[in-house]
Amino acid sequence: MECQSGPIPLAASGAPHSMFRVNTPGRLLLVLLLLSLIGCGNHDKDEINALLDARDKAVSTHDILAYHTLLLPDYADKAISEADLIIRMHNLFEQFDTISMTSDNRIIRIQDSEHALCEQNYHLRVESDGTWRQIYQREQIALTRTAAGWKISGGL
Fold first, then answer.
1. Residue 7 lies in a domain
2. Whole-number Å distance between alpha carbons of 10 and 32
3. How many structural domains are present in the chain?
């Protein structure tokens, strides 16, 4: 393959030749398409953030019904079913008088139009008989878009 040096050939208009020519309306359409794709990602991330914040609130307020609405119907991940999760959370709520759950350092990756992954830290504090215990861990949560919005589909 030969490498040519020298001036870039110009078209009749005086502009450099290009393999990819996009007229002005085409450029505008391309820019609008890119902006809409970026906007969709931000809207999805906002919805996912709201969902995960609602999980923190449901756990902190012992609200099993609210927690259940956050899960994908027929949740099944690593041999844990939706029913297993609800029972586990119910037992946690029964075992501890006070629960506080917060999340931070959240990174959301939209995988495609229907799937996303979130990595975040969660801080769970529980109190029983005047004694506080806490755990601070990193988790990865899978999310799936449904007709009703984003739902937790794995990682719990």
1. no
2. 29
3. 1
SS3 141: strand
**Identity (one letter) of the amino acid at 105?**
N
Predicted confidence (pLDDT) at residue 40 exceeds the cutoff of 60: no
Cβ–Cβ < 8 Å for 100, 124: yes
Q: What is the pLDDT of residues 124-156, one digit of tens each?
A: 999 988 899 999 999 999 999 999 999 999 999
Q: 143 and 116 in contact (C-beta within 8 Å)?
A: yes
Angle value at C-alpha 118, between 115 and 122, nearest 5 degrees:
150
E strand or H helix at 150, and its extent?
strand 149-154
Q: Domain span at residue 74?
A: 24-154
Tell me the residue type at 3.
Answer: C
Tokens 């899978």 correspond to 142
Structure tokens belonging to residue 13: 């208009």
CB 85 within 8 A of CB 91: no
